[in-house]
From TrEMBL:
Retrovirus-related Pol polyprotein from transposon TNT 1-94-like beta-barrel domain: residues covered: 47-124
Keywords: Membrane, Transmembrane, Transmembrane helix
Transmembrane segments: 171-191, 203-227
Keyword Transmembrane: yes
Source superkingdom: Eukaryota
Entries under InterPro entries matching the protein: PolX-like_BBD
Organism of this sequence: Capsicum annuum (Capsicum pepper)
Name under which the protein is recorded: Retrovirus-related Pol polyprotein from transposon TNT 1-94-like beta-barrel domain-containing protein
Length: 232
């Protein structure tokens, strides 16, 4: 499994910018402004849980909501002692089964082959505990003790399927806009037909348009709130 080697103290499990040991050389540290990541992918990302690293690792820059270009000397060391360069560092927030979680301390390693989720960092950032069982795992809120996520074990590996929160927000906004148009259109017809009905005294037409508008509004509430009601 990959590990992280600190260039400052040559210890494992952290990088120099968070090293507890006295700094030996700061000449390689470069400070750059944050860059907002606008690229988006709609498919879920699976993060393999790793208990031996303090940082998340991903080959996909799209998984970092906010990132900094990294020009330090640290590298990620994998099991065969090969060293992989770190391109960016940053953080993000993800959605797992309607629950939003923070992913801090993400290392973007373009040559990595999979996403690795640091269990310790994830638990600390989100104030949760993770319990592992032979066929599944549970994620619990530390305060309420409620189970916020349950996931399976696949071939002995535990993974977390996530969606980038900005993607989810964009999708929700698009859905909401579409539903708003879906409601406004019959409302516009309603105003038009109200005028015609009043002019021609066709009250049946007015009642019909009212019924259509009411039915659409109820269905809109059902879809947004997730209620189950008899079909209209």
């Amino acid at each position: 499994m990959p590990g992280i080697l600190c260039h400052n103290c040559e210890g494992k499990g952290h990088i120099a910018c968070v090293c507890p040991s006295p700094r030996i050389n700061n000449s390689n540290k470069v400070s750059v402004p944050p860059i907002s990541n606008s690229a988006q992918t709609p498919s879920p990302q699976h993060w393999l849980m790793d208990s031996r690293t303090t940082h998340h690792v991903t080959p996909d820059l799209d998984n970092l909501g906010i990132h900094y270009e990294y020009q330090g000397p640290e590298e990620v060391t994998i099991g065969n002692d090969s060293k992989l360069p770190i391109s960016h560092i940053g953080k993000s927030s993800v959605v797992v089964c309607d629950n939003k979680f923070n992913l801090d301390d993400i290392l973007h390693v373009p040559t990595a082959t999979q996403n690795l989720l640091s269990i310790s960092s994830f638990a600390k950032s989100n104030q949760v505990s993770i319990e592992f069982f032979p066929g599944h795992f549970l994620t619990k809120d530390l305060v309420t003790k409620d189970i916020v996520h349950t996931g399976p074990s696949n071939d002995g590996l535990y993974s977390l399927p996530t969606l980038n929160s900005s993607i989810t927000a964009s999708y929700t906004a698009s859905l909401g806009f579409g539903m708003l148009v879906w409601i406004i259109h019959p409302f516009q017809l309603f105003v038009k037909h109200c005028h015609l009905a009043l002019l021609s005294h066709h009250l049946n037409l007015l009642v019909y348009v009212l019924h259509v508008l009411l039915v659409r509004f109820i269905k809109f509430l059902v879809m947004i709130l997730g209620f189950k009601t008899p079909s209209l």
